[in-house]
Amino acid sequence: MKIRSFTQQLDQFAPKQLAEPGDPIGLQIGDLDAQFTRVLVTLDVRPEVVAEAIEKHCELIVAHHPVMFHSARNLDLSVPQNHLYAEIIKHNMTVYAAHSNLDAAENGMNDWLAEKIGLNKPQRLLDGYVDEHGQQFGMGRIGTLEKPMSIKQLAEKLKIDFNLQGLRLIAQNPQKVISRVAVLGGDGGKYFNQALAKGAEVFVTGDVYYHTGHDMLAAGLATIDPGHNIEKICIPKLANLFRSWKDIQNNHIQVIESKVNTDPFTFI
């Protein structure tokens, strides 16, 4: 099966038009017209992930986070990132990324996170691309918990549900009982005012900056920062999606879920 046929189906699920301006989605490295028999699904493309793909004879890597966020100034292989690119090319692998387009897609990343948190009837948090039918897409979701709980109880629940060593809580009163929660996977701190405007009592997002945390406190919005790595929920979700496609089944394509922990942080 050609990689191009596969990525066309992925683009239908998470259309490129949904991506944020300048986001380097889609083909990262490789040849869309190459044939493949095995695809590795991952959150990040790091050296250990590439080694895993090589070991498992995968010709294709599908990632949420692009491997090439910034253009290479040279191909000096003593630079770890450049060496990573060289390993991918050396082993004739293709890397394809679905990033902010997957974040904004219907039944995509933020719907998976909202489901994991337990939000009822989640709605779009941010306004993004509008298609030819007038349907609007956007990143993030906001909804209501099945039953009210304190901010601290929700934080403790998320720590367990996402199997976290720790998380950061920003709240004036952790014992306050809340029910309306917004979530935005990845680095979403700059959107806290939009979460407030939609009536969120708690905002779940990663990588909150120090000064943004102060602004959140001053605005009265409690925030739970479980980190960026909770987006690894995409690995089983995407893998199961791919396995459901008839072309994958008919061509006996093996879909492999990466087992590499790409979280750079350790809590001590």
From TrEMBL:
<feature type="binding site">
    <location>
        <position position="231"/>
    </location>
    <ligand>
        <name>a divalent metal cation 1</name>
    </ligand>
</feature>
<dbReference type="InterPro" id="IPR002678">
    <property type="entry name" value="DUF34/NIF3"/>
</dbReference>
<keyword id="KW-0479">Metal-binding</keyword>
<comment type="subunit">
    <text>Homohexamer.</text>
</comment>
<dbReference type="GO" id="GO:0046872">
    <property type="term" value="F:metal ion binding"/>
</dbReference>
<feature type="binding site">
    <location>
        <position position="103"/>
    </location>
    <ligand>
        <name>a divalent metal cation 1</name>
    </ligand>
</feature>
<comment type="similarity">
    <text>Belongs to the GTP cyclohydrolase I type 2/NIF3 family.</text>
</comment>
<dbReference type="GO" id="GO:0005737">
    <property type="term" value="C:cytoplasm"/>
</dbReference>
<feature type="binding site">
    <location>
        <position position="64"/>
    </location>
    <ligand>
        <name>a divalent metal cation 2</name>
    </ligand>
</feature>
<dbReference type="InterPro" id="IPR036069">
    <property type="entry name" value="DUF34/NIF3_sf"/>
</dbReference>
<feature type="binding site">
    <location>
        <position position="65"/>
    </location>
    <ligand>
        <name>a divalent metal cation 1</name>
    </ligand>
</feature>
<feature type="binding site">
    <location>
        <position position="228"/>
    </location>
    <ligand>
        <name>a divalent metal cation 1</name>
    </ligand>
</feature>
<protein>
    <recommendedName>
        <fullName>GTP cyclohydrolase 1 type 2 homolog</fullName>
    </recommendedName>
</protein>
<dbReference type="Pfam" id="PF01784">
    <property type="entry name" value="DUF34_NIF3"/>
</dbReference>
